[in-house]
Structure formats: C-alpha cells, structure tokens
Specification:
121 residues; mainly alpha; two-stranded antiparallel sheet; flat
C-alpha cells in the first residue's frame, strides 16, 4: 500500500497523509499542555519579578540596593534564618516520620496491623 492510497479506519475512508495526525490526537494531551503552561507560569512569574526588583526606580539601572536595604538590618537576617530553619525542620520531619512508620510496619508481625493501619492514612 502506498501513502497516496486510502485506507479504511473505523468504517470511514480517510486519506493517510491528511488525517494521520488528527486521528492520533488524544484529548488527554490537553491536560499535559495545560499542566506545562501552569508550571511555566509558576516558574516564570517569580523570576520576572525578581529581575524587575533589581532595577532602581529612579534611574532604571540594575542595582542590588533593594536587597542591601532589606537585609542590612540584623532583625531581618534573624527572621530569614528562622524561616530557613523552620523549612529545614519541616522537610526533615515530613521525610522521617513516614519512613519510620513504613519501616515499623515492615518489621512488626501481622498481629499489629490493625494498630498500624490508621498510621498509614
């Protein structure tokens, strides 16, 4: 069979060259396109705002003066340190607790499954 010949597809006759891509289109592909667009928006927007914050409002040149004024005080640096420490603690606990529960379930006998099943949910 050559490309120029027609072939039946589900009771219809379609030309292979004209309807090949349309026939393979799946509506689920739209979900992937929307997810990629949302991810691009969520990543690009903060980057654009960060770059725009580097511009001085009066001269329009790029400067780090905004960050020097924001983090030049000890109080602001302490708040930043506390936020980073809190983020680290939450990350460690959110990884350690489920790992410990999973390891506990693997090691104990099936007699204790009614006790440990609510921990999994």
């Amino acid at each position: 069979m050559t490309v120029e010949q027609v072939r039946p597809v589900q009771g219809q006759v379609l030309h292979r060259a004209r309807f090949g891509r349309l026939r393979r289109f799946e509506p689920a592909s739209l979900i992937w396109v929307l997810a990629a667009a949302a991810l691009l928006f969520l990543v690009a927007t903060p980057l654009v705002r960060l770059i725009s914050s580097l511009q001085a409002t009066d001269t329009g040149t790029f400067t780090l003066g905004n960050y020097v004024s924001a983090y030049g005080r000890l109080r602001n640096l302490e708040a930043l340190g506390n936020s980073l420490l809190y983020a680290l603690e939450v990350t460690v606990l959110s990884n350690a607790v489920p790992t410990g529960i999973g390891d506990l379930r693997r090691r104990i006998s099936p007699l204790w499954e009614p006790v440990t099943n609510p921990l999994v949910v």
